[in-house]
Every structure is written in C-alpha cells, then in structure tokens.
From TrEMBL:
A GO molecular-function descriptor: nucleic acid binding
Gene source species: Anaeramoeba flamelloides
InterPro entries: RNaseH_sf (IPR036397), Tc1-like_DDE_dom (IPR038717)
UniProt superkingdom: Eukaryota
Protein name, as recorded: Transposable element-related
Location of the Tc1-like transposase DDE domain: 4-109
C-alpha cells in the first residue's frame, strides 16, 4: 500500500507498506511514522484541522478512531466517503500520469521512482487541489450528491 497526506502548505513523506494494513499497522507504521498529526498541529494548531480519510477498515476501526480523536479532529463517518471530495484522489491521478512512462525493473526501482515523483510534486498543484475543496463541496450540494468526477 502507498500512503501520503497533503494539506495546504503541508505534505507528508510517502509511506510504502508491503503486505496487509490492519489497524495496528495503520496507526504505528503510517500515522505515527508519517508524523502527519504533529506536522498538521504545528502548521495549523491543535484541533484546528480535520483528518480526512476514506472508509477502509483500518481507517474506521474503533482503535484508529480513538487514537485520532485524542490527537485531532476526525469525522465519523466522513460523508459518503466520496473520492469527489478528497483532493488526494486527484493527486494520485496526477502521479499515475507522471509514472505512465516509467518502466521500473523491480520493486526497489519502483519505490525509488514513485518516492521521487511524490517528493518533487509542485507546491502550487497541492495548494490548488486543497483549495478546490470549496468548489467540490458546492458542486456536490448543487448536484445533490451526484458524481462530480467529470469536472476534475
């Protein structure tokens, strides 16, 4: 699994996990190792930001929710878990486009390439994706929860 987080003026390191991600792995090997909570608290202030994630089982487990709730604002459940509302989904698409012509010879080379793509993402791209949340929310409300993928 490949995991990363973005916010306005914030980007975590890319975390790559071989194998299954369960609750314990998600908390210890992803959330803690990425320092996402410390980074966001430092940038925005404690409990002045929202940790958004999809509905994957490790994200929604009781232990994960309890861990996050003690450290940041997390909504349970996130409305519809819609990729339309999560700017990271568009970022994964941008990265996919950048990786299309890469032909890594092995897993180690792939990890090196994808990490380099992540590390060299343009800050303006990240900022625009985060700012687009306002438009996404407006469009979802206007379209009564209908998909807005055709706009992005």
């Amino acid at each position: 699994m490949i995991w990363g987080a973005i916010a306005h003026d914030l980007q975590t390191v890319l975390i790559i996990i071989n194998g299954t991600v369960n609750t314990e792995c998600y908390i210890h090997d992803i959330i803690k190792k990425s320092n996402v909570i410390q980074l966001a608290n430092s940038e925005y202030g404690e409990f002045k930001w929202i940790f958004q994630q999809d509905g994957a089982c490790p994200h929604t487990s009781k232990n994960t929710f309890t861990y996050l709730k003690q450290r940041c604002n997390v909504l349970d459940p996130w409305p519809l878990n819609s990729p339309d509302l999560n700017p990271i989904e568009n970022l994964w698409s941008i990265m996919d486009t950048k990786l299309k012509n890469c032909n890594p010879k092995n897993e180690e080379e792939f990890i090196k390439i994808i990490t380099n793509v992540w590390d060299t993402l343009c800050w303006k791209t990240l900022e625009n994706l985060v700012i687009s949340m306002y438009k996404r929310i407006y469009l979802v409300i206007e379209r009564e929860s209908e998909s807005i993928n055709s706009f992005y």
